[in-house]
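Case 472 in the screening queue. Each case pairs one protein sequence with one candidate compound; here the compound is phenylalanine. For every case the pipeline is the same: read the inputs, emit a complex structure as tokens, and attach any notable structural observations.

Predict complex for case 472.
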Amino acid sequence: MEGKRGTWNSNFGFIMAAVGSAVGLGNIWGFPYKMGSSGGFAFLLIYLILAVLIGFVVMMGELVMGRRSGRGAVGAYAKLASRKFRWVGWMGVLSAFLIMSFYSVLGGYCLKYMVVNLGDMLGMSFGSNGLNGGDMFTLLLKNQVECVVYTLIIMVIGAAIVMGGISGGIERFSKYAMPALFILLIVVIIRSVTLDGAMKGLEFMFAPNFEPFEKDFISVLSLAGGQMFFSLSLGMGIMITYGSYLPRRENIQRNALVVIFADTVASILSGMAVIPAAFALGGDGAAMAGPKLLYVTLHNVFNSMGDIGPFIGMLFYLLVVIATVTSVISLIEVITTFFMDHAENHGKTGNRRLITLFVSLAIMALATLVAADGLGTNGVWMPFQAFGVSGWNDCWLSFMDMLSEGVMMPLGALLMCLFISYEWGVDRVVTEVERCGDRFVGRQFFSLCFKVIAPLGMVFILWGQLKGFGLV
Ligand code: PHE
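Case 472 output:
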């Protein structure tokens, strides 16, 4: 039966796909800056504690729900949950749709920067032609056609891979792409940390600094929590979907741990690639914040590296594009699996290619809106701006981000914990994990995490996210 639905060919392939989903812009862009500005090593410690006590539990819960039900986000809740929780799966599909609408736009910018660096490398006219990062980014945002085209290219690449299926498309791509990404990261790190002045950057990232904790411990905690959710792709059914293709013999507990470990290592390595170079050649802490880091500061950094700059820049943006694409495919797959499951529930086999095509076209329509808006530069009409709340309604991208990352992901994860703890039962998680033949390690501890620590932590993270978006 599993054969018909499709499965991962190997455990390594599954791990590469799951790590591929997890490692993305959140690691390369968000983590290093947040770590540096919120306590360095001390932030990392808090992040790790949250990842183990909450992230690990939520990831295992999702993988178990997927494998037990053999269905994606919506189907898993439909099969396992009562009326009270059944709608939670829908929120996952909707989040995937919303995240895609802006994630593909940001990936599109990275693709453009990769092309520009290639142009500079070859001395061609599609290079930066001497423009600095700030001017280049402003020009790009104003050029609606270019923004839309690059966004659509990212979508087309993602869709083509998803059309290939679980093992023939996603696994096959991730199996090569992820190791390649790690190798590229190492190459960029070597160049970055050997620049004059790189030490300052490493200090910014790693030196333990308890000042942010003294000022506002709660904010740091919820910042780390929010980052962890987004970075591990939790709370929206990706791991349910990927788990539904996982054969029984695989150890879910161990796999969840490996994915979390690899994602954290990727974040730290990304920081070591980005921050020292940005400090050595680009500026101070302020230059690391927001979109500036990837699209302004780093471009200037590569520009000032001399002859090797465009080459390193090209490699760097290539790795960011790879990281984005492996996340994009997981998001498309959540929605594709929903329709495939729907067909299967009616005794039919869904046409994966056709489904993926329609799903991607729908996402493209929404992404076109976000791309054309250019982070608000082009002022594409938005119905909510009149409310006067700033932050989430600055531009279409912030709005989509607020709905998905700010509300639906933490809410989805909170409800999943409550569902497992108080309706379905932690014992069933243990039983499903043990079907691989290995014992579940730390049962009591996990029960406590599921029932108390994770839900409480989630409420808190949700509140922090709402606050961060200016909603409470
Ligand atoms: N985890 C990805 C990142 O860190 C983002 C993502 C979120 C991907 C949710 C899929 C789902 O960039």
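Case 472 observations:
- The radius of gyration is 21 Å.
- The chain has one domain: 13-468.
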